[in-house]
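FORM 7B: Structural annotation worksheet

SECTION A. Query
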Amino acid sequence: MKSQLEKLLLAVQKDAGERGLSRLEDNLISRTKGDFENACASLAKGAGVVIFTGFFIPTATPPAPETDGPLGALFIARTILSLGRKVIITCEKNCLPAFEVSLQHLGLGDKIALIESPIEASADYAKSFLSQLKEKIGDISHFIAIEKCGPSHLLASIPEQNISAFLDSTDVSSRGKILTMSGKDITPYTAPVHLLFDANFCNASNIIGIGIGDGGNEIGMGNIPWKVIAANIHNGAKIACATTVDYLIVAGVSNWGGYALGSGLLLNADRPSLSSLDSETELEILELMVKQGGLVDGRLGQRIASVDGIDWSTHASVIESLAKTLKETA
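SECTION B. Predicted structure
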């Protein structure tokens, strides 16, 4: 199975968006070696799963959540459901319509729970939200954040030897904020779900955290030293997320990471034939999410059926590669 998992990971770690994921020898991909395999194995055991997604693009026309994240989240959810386990997808209110129309289209509206992530922070935000999630599906063993932006570093999270570089390359107003790749502050539009991924909170709740990202500013990227993201990613010094997880999956597109995780889960469960991964189906869902759900391409900032400004044929090729690996194993 190890070779099949390696094939899955290799297929999704192509830097199609030229973000700089492996620009230098010490990079985002090299720093997460082994995490994908461990995440798949961990997810194959446990109880209910909560998937967090939704990334707001303030410069889009009109401003809206992006298409990267929801597709991958939905595939992971469908995969978990196929194994007989309970799952919740949670996102901000403006992203809910994309999932509502997609779940209805797939005939899963009453099978996959959909909950709004509250934007207003409170002193007991994590505890209160977790209680709400548990009321819906019972015991929860895993949190998964896919293309979910988290707060950037504060001075306190920077090693002493990097403090001078951090102070020179960041400004006080952006530290600790939730930032887009270009450095736009989207904190007011983003639910503070990173609070649920706090290591102490997860440990106390007996929950494993998994992060999936492609740019350095997503929940989980705190696993990678600030200096590595700063060196490899354009604007990385400013936007690098400080939130950590148990396992971090870095992919060329976050949706791809979601497809790979779902596929790897099926391999670990010895149920590869249950996969619903198909490029035509994913394109249908994408078109629905855009036309009826209001999502936009995060890089182009337009309400069109594309992801990260990358031609669909590239996405289809990755999906078909993953599907082929599953079929070879079935």
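SECTION C. Observations
The first strand starts at residue 48 and ends at 52. Residues 2-329 form a domain with the inorganic pyrophosphatase (n-terminal core) fold (CATH 3.90.1640.20).

SECTION D. Sign-off
Analyst initials: ____
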